[in-house]
Amino acid sequence: MPTFLQPDESLGSFMMKSLVFLWPCPPYPHLDGLSRLPPKQNDDGLLSVPAEYEALDRTTPEPPDGSMSDFCKDRFTTKYLKDLRNKAIDYCGPGSGPSAHLTCFHSHTQSDHKCDSFCIGQGAIWEPDKKKFSLDCRVRNPDGDEQARGVVPFNAIHMYWYDTGPRYVFDNLIEFGGSEAASPPPPPAVAPRDPTPPFTVLVKREGNSNLWHALMEVWSMTLSLDVLRMSRDPSNNPNPSSSSGSDSGSGAVAGAGAQPFFTVAADVPRTQVLFLDDFGDGPLFELWKLFAGRDPVRLSTILADPERSRAFAQSPHTLLLPLPGASNPLWQNDWEIRDDCRHAPLLDMFVRRIMSYFGISPPSETVPSSLSIWGSKNMGKLITFVDRRGSRQLLDQDNLLTSARSKFPGVEIQCVDFAALPLPEQIRVVQETDVLVGVHGAGLTHIMFMRQGEGAVVEIQPEVMSHKGFRNLAGMRGQNYFVTHAEMVKKEEDKNNKRRVKRDEWHWANVRIEEAEFLEIIELALNSLDGEALQAVELQ
User: Fold this and answer.
1) Which residues pair with residue 460 across a beta bridge?
2) Which of 103, 404, 480, 486 fits 513 for a cystine, CB–CB 3.0-4.6 Å?
3) Across the chain, what does the average pLDDT equal?
4) Span 122-127, mean pLDDT?
5) CA-CA distance, 427 to 223, in Å (whole number)?
């Protein structure tokens, strides 16, 4: 039987009594990073952010000194989730089926004024002959009030690079029941909700090998689901007469009695990611189950099996078209220094969830930093060099690392090809690392998995670059950051390669750095480990 908080019961007593109900035993032990507690209703009638964010805010609150800019609040705090929730619309207008809903959520943080969107479609039917989902929804345009609070016309939902995002899904996998209608619908008649329809997440990936791109895609999916956990579902409204499209401008799409679109306890077991691409699994394949109780599956696998395709059509689907990876706010943090974004609860939560998923705990410190050997205050520190095997290799790296080992006795220096390791092992390596060193590239994504506030990062950029993304990421995770620029050296076989010449040279050229400069920046990074103030230094 479920356990409920009694009016005269303390929260601590309730939590102790309810521990057994927080998460079941297998098959979902990897979901310990998600709270099963239902959302609370705020004084304004809106649902609260998921409980795990509230707990994080209590342990790492926003800086009280006003040092955090609106730019950062809008992208890296729970304000990002709330703004998406408050810019929602059910696009299904008059003439739509009673169980059909297409609710889309919009964000306006891009510098080019484009809108980022994700959508949830309810009552979709898989049609094996057409190889598409059908949704009995006559798409309408938003009214003036809806547009005033940030809702955009349905045709303004755009395509992203690599042909990704909700627009790709709409154009290729969903057939609608009608055309656009000019006027908004009256309060919809609410059909009884099927308590067990599959919750299917439709994803076309950008690729499967680049760690940064893949993490942005998974993170964007989890942000979409977090918004659904705090947004009311018009198809689950016990008081239909209170449903009001714009709900006094709040962005709610259902009345105060409606439940959220997604709850961990009820919906995780029926959730599955459906890949619309045929890429290999890649290193992050497991992470697509962060909110899913079922293993990911490819659409091509279903299409190749007529029996499975027919079974897929047995019941209506709830479809999630999540935010694409290219919309992730971290992409908007690349070209300007953002020292005002040190507080980033959305990033912190994503990292915590991944660590929890893989059962990784921060290692205990085995050698106090105050000890010394051979006059080295850095005895026992670990430097990890990102060993690139494709483009942008550091020339003469073996000799450079040998020189560093000689100059810094007592410091362990390892060279790691992260691409050759499973993701959990990659994270464990980085968790033990004090200084992460690498040429600009996806390997430096691991900054986010270093022990928060305890390390340093050295980035070697090609000489023409002025990228700030990894500097800003280091600041958000409390790591000291050091950058230097290296000479670009074309590989002989690439000088006449027309395909590569078309791209910016830094994408593929190797780099070369003088030994003295390499040792200097390593020393600066090691020395920063004992400092109290966070450092960000560009070596000239």
Assistant:
1) 439, 484
2) 486
3) 84
4) 95
5) 22
The percent of residues in the chain predicted with pLDDT above 90, rounded, is 63
Higher pLDDT, 450 or 533: 450
Q: At what angle do helices 345-358 and 51-59 cross, to 10 degrees?
A: 110
Q: What is the pLDDT of residues 251-265, one digit of tens each?
A: 445 566 678 999 998
CA-closest candidate to residue 80, choices 345, 296, 266, 265:
345
Nearest to 376 by CA among 403, 430, 412: 412
**Residues 149, 246: Cα–Cα separation, whole Å:** 9
Angle at 289 between CA 285 and CA 291, to 5 degrees: 150
Residue 209: alpha-carbon gap to chain centroid: 16
Q: What band does 36 get if pLDDT is binned at 50, 70 and 90?
A: confident
Cis peptide before 27 (omega within 30 of 0): yes
The label of the residue with tokens 């009594």 reads: 17
Residues sharing a CB contact under 8 Å with residue 274, sequence separation 6 or more, in sequence order: 200, 201, 202, 203, 296, 297, 298, 299, 302
Contact 54, 67 (CB under 8 A): no
Integer Rg of the chain from CA: 25
Collapsed DSSP state (helix, strand, coil) of residue 386: strand
DSSP structure string for 415-429: EE-GGGS-HHHHHHH
Residue 488 burial (10 A CB sphere; 0-12, 13-18, 19+): middle
- Contact assessment for residue 99 and residue 316, using Cβ atoms and an 8 Å cutoff: yes
Q: Express each pLDDT in 297-334 by its tens digit.
A: 999 999 999 999 988 998 899 999 999 999 999 999 88
The pTM of the full predicted model, rounded to 2 decimals, is 0.86
* Tally of helices (H runs) and strands (E runs) in the chain: 16, 16
Asked if pLDDT for residue 1 goes beyond 90, the answer is: no
Cα-based angle 181, 185, 191 (whole degrees, multiple of 5): 120
Determine the pLDDT at residue 29. 53
SS3 159: coil
Beta-strand pair 412-416/456-462: unpaired
Token reading at 268: 């995780």
Q: Is 373 helix (H, G, I), strand (E, B) or coil?
A: strand
> Which phi and psi angles does 46 have, rounded to 5°?
-85, 155
Residue 500 has pLDDT above 60, yes or no: no
* 498-532 residues labelled b (16+ CB within 10 A) or e (exposed): eebeeeeebebbbbbbeeebbbebbebbbebbeee
Helix (H) or strand (E) holding 127: strand 116-127
Tell me if residue 118 falls in helix, strand or coil. Answer: strand
Structure tokens at 398: 């073996």
Over range 13-39, report the average pLDDT.
Answer: 51
Q: What is the mean pLDDT of residues 112-134?
A: 94
The bridge status of strand 116-127 relative to strand 174-181 is: unpaired
Q: What is the mean pLDDT of residues 33-50?
A: 83
- Say if residue 49's pLDDT is above 80: yes
